[in-house]
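Priority: medium. Attachment 1 of 2:
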């Protein structure tokens, strides 16, 4: 049974990298790129076992010069992060999307990179955004997915009753989610993942 914004779904927790690993990734800045004052962003996704060990990683995009390609995944494989939790609050496999920014702040490209905070995984148009300043609203959703790749649970990353309507709409749009995640041995397993959903003012879908 699909649980939209359920109490059980609210027990989900995504893994987080500790400060040491985060600092280490930031130290990977290629010397050639520093000399040429090049800035860039590496987008990647990685898989985390129930014990917090990273067992899979794939670079998904490089924004900027390709000198930044192939820097991240080799460095994080086998490292440990915080333990992911499923809809029942127990350890579970996780699929994480992330990015690393490499920037020289006093350059035009560096300033753009510093202002990058990710891209939406799902965009929905609405006629209005009550109580929201600006033209869009970004919300984080946590999904519970079974071994067949189907979404079973959907919950907000942060509880906010004022945005319940937006969250419900986003969860309903994601009911067709279909992605199987194999474990380190290649066997499909249940997992949790996080999506960034953007609501933009415009003609409603």
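Attachment 2 of 2:
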């Amino acid at each position: 049974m699909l649980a939209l914004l359920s109490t059980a779904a609210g027990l989900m927790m995504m893994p987080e990298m500790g400060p040491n690993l985060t600092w280490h990734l930031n130290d990977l800045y290629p010397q050639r790129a520093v000399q040429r004052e090049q800035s860039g962003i590496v987008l990647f996704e990685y898989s985390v076992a129930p014990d917090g060990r990273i067992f899979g990683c794939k670079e998904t995009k490089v924004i900027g010069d390709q000198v930044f390609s192939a820097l991240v995944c080799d460095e994080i494989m086998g490292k440990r992060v915080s333990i992911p939790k499923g809809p029942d609050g127990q350890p579970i496999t996780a699929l994480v999307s992330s990015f690393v920014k490499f920037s020289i702040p006093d350059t035009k490209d560096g300033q753009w990179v510093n202002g990058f905070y990710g891209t939406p995984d799902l965009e929905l148009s609405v006629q209005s955004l009550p109580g929201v300043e600006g033209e869009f609203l970004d919300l984080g959703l946590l999904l519970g997915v079974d071994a067949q790749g189907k979404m079973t649970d959907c919950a907000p990353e942060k509880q906010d009753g004022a945005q319940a309507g937006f969250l419900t709409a986003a969860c309903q749009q994601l009911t067709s989610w279909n992605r199987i995640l194999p474990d380190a041995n290649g066997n499909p397993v249940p997992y949790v993942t996080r999506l960034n959903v953007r609501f933009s003012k415009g003609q409603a879908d």
